[in-house]
Amino acid sequence: MRAAVEQRARAYRAPLNTPRTRLLRRFPTHWLFLLPMLLLVVVFFFVPVILNLILAFTDMTLSLRWEFVGLKNYVKFLQDPLIPQIAKNTLVYVSATLSINVIFGLFLALLTTYFVKRENVGLAFRSLWLLPRMTPPVVYALLWIWMTDPTEYGLLNMMLQAFGLPPLSWRTEYPMATIILVNGMVGASFGMIIFSAAIKSIPVDYIRAAKVDGASDLGVVRWVILPLLKWPLMFVTTWQTLSLLASYEYILLVTQGGPNHRSEVWSLYAYYKAFASGQYGYGAAIAMVLVAVAVIIALLMLRIFGFRRLMELMR
Amino acid sequence: MRSRWSLLGVLLVGLALLSGTVGSSAAQQVVTITAWAAGSPVDGTRCSNLVEAAGQLRSETGLKIEPACQFTHVQDWAAYRQRFVIAYQAGQAPDIWTGGHEEIAWMAAAGYIVPVDEYIQKYWEQYELNDVFDNLWQACTWKGQLWCVPQDTEARPVYFRKDVLRQLGWSNAEIEALPERVRAGEFTLDDMIALAKQAKEAGLVEWGVFHRPTPGGYFHMMTMAFGGQLQDPETGKLVLDRQAMLKNLQFHARLVQEGLTPPDMTATSWRSIHKAVVEGRVLFWFGGTWHWAEWQRVPYHGELGALSEDYLWENMGFMLVPAPERGGRPITQSHPFVYVITSQSQNPELAFRLAAIGAVRKDLAAKHAIEAGKLSIRKTNTAEYRNWGFGNAVSYMLEYTTTLPNHERFDVYHRAVYNAIQAVETGARTPEQALEDLVGELQRELGDEVIIR
Amino acid sequence: MRASSSNSTPNPNPTPVGAAAVEAPPRRRKRKREYAHLTRFARTKARLYAALPYVLLAIVSLPIVVMYSWLLMNSFSKKTLFGFIPQELTLNNWRFLWEPLRIGTSVHPSIWTVTGNTLLFAGGVTVLIVLISTLAGFALSRFDFRGRQSIMQLTILLHAFPGVTLMIAIFFVLLYLMKFTGLPFLNSLWGVVLVKAALEIPWSAWIIKGFFDAIPWEVEWSAYVDGCNRFQAWYKVILPQIRPGIAAIAIFSFLAGWGEFIFLYTFIFSEAFYTLSLYLNSIIGEFQVVEYGVVAAVALFYMIPVIVFFIFTQKGLMQVTVGGLKGGR
């Protein structure tokens, strides 16, 4: 049956010498299907990467004139007194948020899929944690702005008041902690979902066997589940490093990088240089570092995980 | 009204027939003039005055002038500026753009706006442009040409809480005499600090002195208060006066050290600043005349909401920025707002006329001044304005006023000074270190466009 | 997932897995019987131990519940106790639905124009993504050609690549597209639709390819037998088969477009093109002169599609999100 169908199909595709088929042969159908995607990818990924590289060598400002200045932007960058602080902020922000995302994500996944035996309860909590991610960023930021409001109307300050303490200006006192929590609360769900899927795919027998041998629940986690989560853990770590380095949307919305650059990270600094100070050339030079890091990490991911495993992890 | 229109129509159609050209549509020709304005929540008249001015322009020209004005409640002037650039590149720039006078330099240098000398001359008398203060035309000048129409001006007084002074035992007469003592140079910045300390130690206020949190003219006004200069009158280059700048930085460092100003002043939101000021939790506020209007329209006060003018007269006083030394000269600052005509305007002359009417016509100028708490740009004014108590009370300050330089790269200077003050207040840098950082940054960024003295 | 786990597992269990599985049930039953002989104290302890995960989850999830209930409560009340216990109910906060919001002497645009823009934007993003990724996914799944493997690798790499790092350069891409074509790529919803779609497409093409993979070849062949060419086969026969997949990427694209902020914020400057994200951001703004109640009401209004999709697509959400967590944070 199959062979017959195949033959007929092949017969249909026998070359007909019409202008259309000739065109198709020179420019086969699959490329036509792929063309729109490739076009967008070229215009909004490849061209920008190259353009960023070129822009970084210019003195582009609000007058939008192309004036090539060689390495001036990079020299400026090395002399920029803010850069050490920005680099430190970025390091703290990425590593702290990353640990929340991985450790807390794992904690949530274990609780909802392994410890909580009722499937629908686990699902309900997982959905709840997805909510911040599904919420439009501006609304989510608003919730945090309200929580950390410096007046007596903020949630945290209401709690302080309940203990008879004076209100605190949370965002200006603890800007770094604020942005880490803001991003962590969204980021944890990424790890949670990947790890939950991985835990669910562990054959029940493995766990039973461990229990039979007298392992406690924590023992099962330690000796059965964690070893099986090696690849998902590595995946979440690299993926989130990449996203965190580039993310500044919530920071822009909640603390604007302030006060006094205390919560300003690398990507936001580049953004401000370009879109607030109108120094596009310098902004591009700062962003160039991130672009390079992103390209390298992306390629590294391919190397470490291999194409096949990456495909499975990303499903 | 209708008959006048139809008469005009008939005339124009007749004219078109006579000349034999395709002028038949001219009678209904619609000219859209777009404008962008921006400012605080009470600056809406920057837009609505243009819309009102269209009526006059319509009857003058017989054209159907359709004004479309977009008002932005500005949070960050840089973003507002940026948007203009994008709109310009998109070929969608408005005909009229509103901004601080110091914007004209970079805009003119990039070719975004057109000089208006010709029009000013042409309409000098018709629109009573001759009644506008001369120094405001000065603020519109860059490289020997005029680039804008002044829209408003103001003074930046120091507000003080009368109720707090009363609680400190000051008599009403003493309180009312304070502005005069400042004017005479008898009450100095040191006295101001001492008084703030006294009020704070007496537990009457939480803070002694507040200033604006975002980059703004205030920070340069203080440099000038300490005898500094911002621009070299000969060459037009920017100037950094080391001595004055150091004093400025030291002044802010001292405010924080004495516990009068919070170290994170520059990170405080406008809302909480206004709230603290109107609720009397701060003694001195380096504000602007427009705040007088803003407090009456925006409910900053926790219990009273928007305040009545009576409340303000009762509790708020205003004075010039005191001189640093006894007998010195107190100052204030004006930051004239201006209308510029963009080079993408299809009808620059009509746009100019609309802007000129909107800014200068007596009733409109007075309306904007009173509603927004600004000062009129005119020498002669309507009765309503002349009877406006607050306007009268602050107008003497214009004799002591200063302005910002018109320089293409002023924005770099502007932000660098702000960053230096922020670094000093937060304790990240000592005044001396911050000055060195500032000098280094300005030299790097501006090269020979800045003179360090 | 399974393949990756089995070859990398150091087996902690000395007994053969299969054997343990067979033996397990009787032993467990025996254990249960043992429980019955435990003391009351020990039983309570065991029960507490079983409840512990629930308690822990409830505690860590409390902030989320509180945050969102604040939004709900505040939008309907004049005053609240501790932020989320309503004191005086009112609909006044929702007045933006029938009159423009006024702040000082400035007036915000009507919410309905803004909502229309947001729908247009999210709809545009959805249509573009669905169309382009079903085309591309089909080619990647059903054609065998040189370069296929590289394009798949590229897709996966681009999915991981954070597009926002290219913001400055994308600005110039749009600027020059606008200059050369005369079309409004900047300050127009369509320009940003293109950017947003481009950044999301590697993911959606990837997801939809999986759906194409699951369709048996026979289905496609039967189309050719009926005289279809490949476009017709794609359109008439294959696409109807992957409706669930299309629905999934459509929902996600729509929500991604609906929530979009940063690109709109950077590339749109006319209030005429404001979307709900820009509108809400502008009323949260520096002056913060609007009462929290109004802001909460606008935010809740903005959340409606999210809530709707969240309730109706629970299960699907869980399955598809894994790959869709673009921009992971």
Task: Summarize the structure in words.
The complex is a heterotrimer of chains A (315), B (453) and C (329). Chain A has 16 helices and no strands. By secondary structure, chain A is mainly alpha-helical. The radius of gyration of chain A is 26 Å and the shape is globular. Chain B has helices at residues 2-19, 45-61, 77-89, 104-109, 117-123, 134-139, 162-167, 172-183, 189-201, 217-225, 242-257, 270-278, 289-297, 309-315, 348-360, 362-372, 383-386, 389-394, 410-425, 431-446, and strands spanning 30-39, 64-73, 96-100, 141-142, 145-146, 149-152, 158-161, 207-210, 238-240, 282-286, 316-319, 332-333, 337-341, 401-402, 450-452. In chain B, the strands form five sheets. Chain B has a five-stranded mixed β-sheet. In chain B, helix 2 runs antiparallel to helix 16, helix 10 (217-225) crosses helix 11 and helix 11 (242-257) packs parallel to helix 19. Chain C is mainly alpha-helical. Chain C has a domain at 106-324: MetI-like (MetI-like fold). Helix content of chain C is 71%, strand content 2%. Chain C is built from 14 helices and four strands. Chain C has helices at 2-8, 17-36, 40-76, 111-142, 148-160, 167-181, 189-213, 217-225, 230-241, 243-259, 262-267, 276-284, 292-312, 314-324, and strands at residues 80-81, 85-86, 102-103, 106-107. In chain C, the strands form two sheets. Chain C has a two-stranded antiparallel ribbon. In chain C, a hairpin with a 3-residue loop joins strand 1 and strand 2. In chain C, helix 4 runs parallel beside helix 7, helix 5 (148-160) packs across helix 7 and helix 8 (217-225) packs across helix 9. The longest helix of chain C is centred in the N-terminal third of the chain and has 37 residues, at 40-76. Chain C starts with a helix and ends in a 5-residue tail after the last helix.
